[in-house]
Amino acid sequence: MKMLVLGAGLQGCACAYDLLQNPAVTQVTLADLRPDNLPAFLTDQGDWGGRLKTVRLDVTDPVAVQETMRGQTSVMSAIPYYYNAPMARAAVEAGCHFSDLGGNTEIVFEQKKLEDQAVARNVSVIPDCGLAPGMVNILAAEGIRRLDRAAQVKVYVGGLPQQPEPPLNYQIVYSLEGALDYYTTPSWVLRGGKPVQVDALSELEAVDFPQPVGTLEAFHTGGGISTLPFAYQGKVDVMEYKTLRYPGHVAIMRPIRELGLLDNTPVEVKGKSVVPRDLFIAAVHPKLHKPRGKDLVALQVTVTGTKDGKPAKVTFRLIDRYDADHGISAMMRTTGYSLSITGQMQADGRVTLRGVHTPDEAIPFRAYVEELGRRGVRIEEL
Length: 382
Description:
By secondary structure, this protein is an alpha/beta fold. The chain contains 14 helices and 18 strands. It has helices at 10-20, 40-43, 62-69, 84-94, 105-111, 115-120, 135-146, 176-184, 228-231, 249-258, 276-288, 330-348, 359-362, 365-374; strands at 2-6, 27-32, 52-56, 74-77, 97-100, 124-126, 149-161, 187-191, 194-198, 205-208, 215-220, 238-245, 267-269, 272-274, 295-307, 310-321, 355-356, 380-381. The strands form 4 sheets. Strands 3-2-1-4-5-6-17 form a 7-stranded parallel beta sheet, with helices on both faces. It has a 7-stranded mixed beta sheet with strand order 10-11-12-7-15-16-18, covered by helices on one side. The longest helix is centred in the last third of the chain and has 19 residues, at 330-348. It is globular, with a radius of gyration of 20 Å. The two termini are 37 Å apart.
């Protein structure tokens, strides 16, 4: 199996590392505009016996993209979400399976238009294959399947520092720009079985985890379950996704947003045009970027309803921590590894559906959870 990973950032490198653990993967090509500055966990073993290859690629160059994809079994995209649609189209044209980290519901609907072409080329396209969206969608769908009727689905996920520092008690565990998108984009939820949008950073609630994680605060953010509310409209009464942070985070971030500091519309400052969000990122990033900071991922998916005529509940929980032996963050393990598992399942035939399908539709639950477990990412059923 020859595998192509687009993007040599945190998640792309974690995906590549995980692919290289499988001896059936004969080559991993890591493509990026700047593919030279790789983390130690990828470079310590040299070129992995010739199995790891890096190439310089500009994904806005369609000819170069087609040439790079030609002959690959699966393509896994860990580049910004706004490239996902053209990359999926290119992979289908090249006859490769394709998966990505998602992050934008409208783009997933655009990718679904490739259904006929993907079926004709006998390939699988699976958007939204990270942690959220991705892992949580698979868990939510399994919880729904286990009940005769699912009335309510609540999904909570957070990437957090193990040692929080005020005032935000947060460190960057992926793109800060991406996190701010979620803080400013309305979230699709189900209310009364109908998809509606609610404001990000709203409907604050407390969620308890075992110590030392403790009580966290949860609030709406966009994109976490992607198309799931549309797939289950009319079938589930309530479905929602909330981000987890240490208590007090929203009390700071909401005023920052309401003051316009996260806006993308330029303002004039002393005769110069400045984008407030760009300025905010430039000022805040050095304070939140902690390369040696150890993180954790907390996740809980709860589905309530009825089974055999009685009230019933299915709950999945995950707490994953930084891998100190290899220098791989919990966010990379839960997101990059999830993308790798998806690409491998597409390549080895465990994903049998062809066309464009979301993870909850295409990924076999038990095999996926077992693969995570082999990597020490353990889903607990409460």
